[in-house]
Amino acid sequence: MTDICDLIDKDGGTQKSAIFHDQGIYDLEMERIFARSWLFLTHEGQIPNIGDYVRTMMGEDEVIVVRQRDGSVKAFLNACRHRGAQVCAAEAGNANIFVCPYHGWGYGIDGSLRAVPLEKELYKGRLDKSTHGLRVVPLVESYHGFVYGCFDSTAPSLKEYLGEMGWYLDVWMDAAGGAELIGPPSRSILNCNWKVPSENFVGDTYHVGWTHGAALKALGAKPHRLGNRSLPDGDTGLQITTRHGHGLCVGFDGGPGMLGAVAPDILAWQAQNRERIERKLGSLRTRFYGCHINSTIFPNNSFLWGTNTFKLWQPRGPGSIEVLTWTIVEKEMPEDMKSRIATSMNRLFGSAGMLEADDSDNMESITQLSRGFVTRQGRVISQMSKGDDRQVPGMPGVVGDCAMGETAYRGFYRFYREMLLAGSWDEIRAGDSVWSDELLSLTLQSQSVERRK
Ligand code: FES
Ligand SMILES: [Fe+2]
């Protein structure tokens, strides 16, 4: 029996290494986290027409996500109701009907069972087709075009689940004219646990200058970055964690620096956009536009804004994941700019990207070493900047005073623990007041986010 309280200590400062490679913990995560959280499915722009679909995973459950005749999006388990064969084998496409390859049952794009070979002769009127449609994912919602699904019908709405995180997301998902993904996603397998990249993207700016030192040098990064020699002058950024484990690190003046040669016209594009965002959201939020941001939406959906990668870490057992990578761009950008950003993103974070390769080594070593019996009894720490977490007026969530901290790690594992312990969403909701009390107990400290000239 897994002792969850021992896995993650209550104040979120340490975790037992066993969390990175343990079948029992993994099974519990599938039940309590992946079957109850909102999980990224696709972007609406990837399935614009009636019958357009993508095949994806929710935890270890395979689903088909389909654009409906009324414009809505539905998702179904990709398992035939007859004997359970995979109904749709293609990654994406357009369909009028999904036909199971085993015995030929046919399902409409709404998931209903439409056709059964030799139905009259063999079932003789005893098969109720109306109760044998593909099993439906009960909750599917879109947040500014980003489509998420949830298996637990008692979960909060997607908007509530994102909660305080929406304040940050809206800057580029909405006010800047919206965002879209360039697909289809590239796919690769990593021998790592799903939490390792999720925690890295939610809160690890610390590794950048060190892990990526050689690659950054080749890319012409600023000297302070290389080998973590020093913090940047002035802009050390912030780190934020919000209710439900989401979080981000922001480097205010990082901008699209790593996009190298494509940066000058992106900077001009952003300058032109900044005014309208300010009119809509005010100056504080506008400061988050055009920054470099790394982020994870709990549990396994991460992105970098500024290097424009959008990731899904699909669990494949305790020691393996499938990585799906899209390029994320502003919808209204010129097509040529989008395509240059996609090329640059793929060089850095595609399956064979320079920075992807650096990160993959660490992610695999953490996971595989945690198989060792003695190693897995030990603990890893996320205590950096622990005493400095605070509230900043106007900024939702807990704010750490530097992008290089572990505030967002602690928030991620705080909620991870809460989900593993809770028997239902009602119990998780009961924790909202604890979160509010914890926020109130933090020092209130204003933050200057003046733009540097
Ligand atoms: S398993 Fe699909 S038709 Fe038999
Ligand atoms: Fe990295």
Automatic annotation (TrEMBL):
The keyword Metal-binding applies. GO terms for molecular function: 2 iron, 2 sulfur cluster binding; dioxygenase activity; iron ion binding. PROSITE patterns: RIESKE, RING_HYDROXYL_ALPHA. It comes from the Bacteria. Keywords: 2Fe-2S, Aromatic hydrocarbons catabolism, Dioxygenase, Iron, Iron-sulfur, Metal-binding, NAD, Oxidoreductase. InterPro entries: ARHD_Rieske_2Fe_2S, RHO_NdoB-like_C, Rieske_2Fe-2S, Rieske_2Fe-2S_sf, Ring_hydroxy_dOase_asu_C_dom, Rng_hydr_dOase-A. Residues 38-148 form the Rieske domain. Belongs to the bacterial ring-hydroxylating dioxygenase alpha subunit family. This is Phenylpropionate dioxygenase-like ring-hydroxylating dioxygenase large terminal subunit.
